[in-house]
Design goal:
Blueprint (H helix, E strand, L loop, with lengths): L4 H15 L9 E4 L6 E9 L5 E11 L6 H19 L10 H14 L11 H5 L7 E8 L4 E6 L4 H7 L6 E9 L9 E2 L5 E3 L1 H7 L4 E6 L2 E4 L2
Parallel strand pairs: 1-3, 5-7
Antiparallel strand pairs: 2-3, 4-5, 4-6, 5-8, 6-9, 9-10
């Protein structure tokens, strides 16, 4: 399922009463299609005179891109509610998933038979469900051991990576393409030297329709 604002509001109230004694104040809820998180409580902060942080301006964001089971969506909501409880009560945890967060997570899991975790590993099925059409700047790499790899460049870093990737000692050759194949949505857009391995046959099938790129001076363009 994919959450709606009304669904999140309903579950927020339900688990606020059940797990947090109804102490959490309502906050704005936003839907998100980001690939980097399933749920998120964003906030602003300012430093107190004693060096601790004061947290405010909370917004609850829930991902609608990845199709999860209802139990998984509920666990994501409760996960973010733990963050919200800690931050809104100005509790200074040891890290984002520190001692306080871990203790509360384990207590809720045990008491209410939940399966909340610190992170969620995206499955291949969830990756395949990301069918957004986006433009990707794809560097295709052949390594000296004859394995293949790809790097999806952030647009702001393509000139830097264009020059740096061929200098990596393990790289035998590389070429660049522009593609809108949703397959490449699963890879993060890198800003540093990061190459992801891929099977040659899988790569070839997803490069169909891609257009090769060339660099001419200060311009990178589609090869004619």
């Amino acid at each position: 399922m994919k959450a709606t604002v009304e669904y999140v509001k309903q579950k927020f109230q339900e688990y606020n009463d059940l797990c947090f004694e109804g102490k959490l104040k309502p906050l704005p809820i936003r839907l998100s299609s980001a690939r980097t998180f399933l749920g998120q409580v964003s906030y602003r902060r300012e430093k107190n005179p004693d060096g601790t942080w004061h947290y405010f301006g909370f917004i609850f964001r829930i991902n609608t891109l990845i199709d999860l089971s209802e139990q998984e969506v509920e666990d994501v909501i409760i996960h973010e509610m733990i963050h919200y409880y800690i931050l809104s009560n100005q509790i200074q945890d040891t890290s984002i998933h520190g001692v306080v967060f871990t203790s509360m997570m384990k207590e809720i899991n045990a008491k209410y038979n939940r399966h909340i975790t610190v992170s969620h590993k995206v499955t291949k099925e969830e990756q395949d469900n990301d069918t957004r059409v986006r433009q990707h700047l794809v560097c295709v790499v052949r390594l000296r051991n004859n394995q293949r790899g790809v790097a999806i460049a952030a647009r702001s870093r393509i000139f830097q990576l264009w020059d740096e990737i061929p200098r990596i000692p393990s790289v035998a050759e590389c070429s660049w393409y522009v593609s809108t194949d949703p397959f490449f949505n699963r890879y993060p857009r890198v800003q540093s030297l990061k190459i992801y391995p891929i099977a040659p046959e899988e790569l070839e099938s997803h490069l169909e329709g891609a257009k090769p790129l060339v660099k001419a001076g200060n311009t990178i363009k589609v090869k004619r």
